[in-house]
């Protein structure tokens, strides 16, 4: 019974032994994969390594909540971070400012490259990121003014105009074969981050529906629009890296879908603003 209790929630030496055996068994299994993958001993080691890995995953899960709780308690000691954790609207604005700075950096980078290389492709990308920056900047600024209604409508209009820059980029992708290029293993990192970005953007938009703060709705919609475009950028990267077929057709189809989605986001944002203002 005591052993079962230790298995349910290992501590001390038992926990250290579990982690050590997991690491050792995995190293042995990896060694056998390359040296003697099909022997009986190898299969036994694979089974042992799999068992320890599964059990260690269980241990990580049961301790994750307590670790998270401890970290959160420490973070709450700092007033600014505590406000971010507690206040959804404030957290949205802070992250929007961070995104604004990142977009501004991309804008400056693409402007410099466009001027030096005399490339319309980078000029269009600079315009796209500049528009994202303006929307976030004006939305955050509008929270501190008495003319929110008109300013929010202006932001909604800019978000609706975003597909204009996007359509220019799509045309260059299709006609000139332009693409977002990433070297080596960075392709996989970009793919993982893009899927994370679009997933979180969708979750954030759904969560924002519970808020009647227009700025929160706009900022989350901007995030979704940006994430949608990132999916298109990822496709061009993957096709440029791994595909030898008709890239232009695939980019045109996906580009058209993304164009319609971003246009719809802009229009729905304007409708959302009117509905909330009327209420």
Q: What report would you give on this structure?
A:
This protein has about 280 residues and is mostly helical. The protein folds into 2 domains: about 1-75, no CATH class; about 80-279, no CATH class. Helix content is about 85%, strand content about 0%. It has helices at about 1-10, 10-35, 40-75, 80-85, 90-115, 120-140, 150-175, 185-210, 215-240, 245-279. α2 (about 10-35) packs across α3. The radius of gyration is 25 Å and the shape is globular. The chain starts with a helix and ends with a helix. The model has no long low-confidence stretch (mean pLDDT about 80).
Observed structural traits:
279 residues, globular, 0% strand
Low confidence ranges: none
Count of helical stretches: 10
User: Helix fraction?
Assistant: over 70%
Counting helices, strands and paired strands, the structural category is: mainly alpha
Number of domains: 2
Q: What is the number of beta strands?
A: 0
H/E element string?
Answer: HHHHHHHHHH
What is the C-alpha radius of gyration, as a whole number of Å? 25 Å
Q: Major sheet: size, sense and barrel closure?
A: none
User: What would the principal axes of the Cα set say about the shape?
Assistant: globular
Terminal CA distance: 62 Å
Strand fraction? under 5%
- Mean of the pLDDT scores? 78
Overview in brief:
The protein is mainly alpha-helical and 279 residues long. The protein is built from 10 helices and no strands.
């Amino acid at each position: 019974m005591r052993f079962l209790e230790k298995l349910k929630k290992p501590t001390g030496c038992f926990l250290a032994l579990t982690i050590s055996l997991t690491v050792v068994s995995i190293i042995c299994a990896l060694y056998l994969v390359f040296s003697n993958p099909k022997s009986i001993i190898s299969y036994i080691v694979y089974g042992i390594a799999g068992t320890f890995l599964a059990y260690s995953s269980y241990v990580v899960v049961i301790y994750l909540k307590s670790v998270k709780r401890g970290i959160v308690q420490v973070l709450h000691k700092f007033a600014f971070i505590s406000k971010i954790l507690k206040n959804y609207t404030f957290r949205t604005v802070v992250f929007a400012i961070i995104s604004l700075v990142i977009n501004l950096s991309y804008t400056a980078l693409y402007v410099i490259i466009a001027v030096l290389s005399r490339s319309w492709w980078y000029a269009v990308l600079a315009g796209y990121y500049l528009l994202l920056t303006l929307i976030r900047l004006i939305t955050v600024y509008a929270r501190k003014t008495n003319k929110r209604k008109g300013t929010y409508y202006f932001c909604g209009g800019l978000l609706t105009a975003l597909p204009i820059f996007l359509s220019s980029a799509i045309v260059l992708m299709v006609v000139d074969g332009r693409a977002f290029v990433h070297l080596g293993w960075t392709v996989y990192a970009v793919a993982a981050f893009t899927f994370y970005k679009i997933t979180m953007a969708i979750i954030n938009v759904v969560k924002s529906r519970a808020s009647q703060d227009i700025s929160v709705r706009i900022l989350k919609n901007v995030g979704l629009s940006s994430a949608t475009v990132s999916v298109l950028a990822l496709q061009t990267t993957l096709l440029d890296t791994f595909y030898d077929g008709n890239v232009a057709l695939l980019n045109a189809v996906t580009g058209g879908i993304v164009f319609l989605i971003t246009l719809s986001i802009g229009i729905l944002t304007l409708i959302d603003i009117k509905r909330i203002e009327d209420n």
